[in-house]
């Protein structure tokens, strides 16, 4: 049965999944790299950059689980890029270069649909105006029986949690305070009742919280 | 040198230190007991209730550190009780019965000062209208060279963090989502820069985050 999964989603102690003031130079706004230092050290991230080495402990084990069994991703428009409103720059093709790490269809939620963009390595960005259930229907169809990843950002993960469409949620609590940005947890009072929850802290100082549907 | 310490301060994943709708029957409002289940299981808490038994692991080790070396506590008015505005019920003497667990002077921050209340066992509630620095000055004087505990609630801990008056902060992140209430972390962007930070998860599922002044 195809599952809906979130992986490697970092939040601050105050629950922000990204900072304020996103721009082409600062995908996470004023948060900079603070939410993802743990991830940058892993083999999984370094391999995405074409580099060798990296940590091989629990952070890596968790980070590396993001790809197996995934047939499509859904992401919010702000994960795809910093543009707001009607698309001005059609040359923007995401933060990930010509060969993005997804290698599957990726459904970008937007109120401004545009033609699909085919990248190297199997990633195809589709731009869809749809609520979570409809976006998931399309992604499942494209995933060919495999799982669907909800890639973020926080508003998108939250929308899918509100719609109770997530089966597995991996959140990484980073012991920093961002103060402003976009919160993950708003409106999700009692979320814990819907999941089996595990937490583990690693030597990098982060806490991996996994919630899986009971 | 006298230190300023916070112990056993539970927050939800979304950063709430208490829920919404405090009343005499619900000190933590709609949060109920969800933030403190880990604490209720410890020997330290059970001993406060005059009971035997309880957990003896890391939760207990952390919980039990709250008393040693403390000469006074400062708490917000909402930790003391559910009344707001001018005191209507002078018979209210806190949630803790005739012999509260503090056994030291306790300074209750309020815009409505009233005469001190002496309890059994050495606890004396003083009601002071003061900013954090002045309240700390008074508490330090009463503590006779010992440390001062900032007892909560979240607004009070936050005010002392904003004023950079905390030396040791022990926060317990509980993997629940409260959705509403009073947040601990608001306005504290970059707090991590002022502290050495450690995190450890325990089998109860909570994460103890300790911040000590570098």
From TrEMBL, chains A, B:
Pfam families: RibD_C. Residues 8-202 form the Bacterial bifunctional deaminase-reductase C-terminal domain. This is Dihydrofolate reductase family protein. It comes from Kitasatospora cinereorecta.
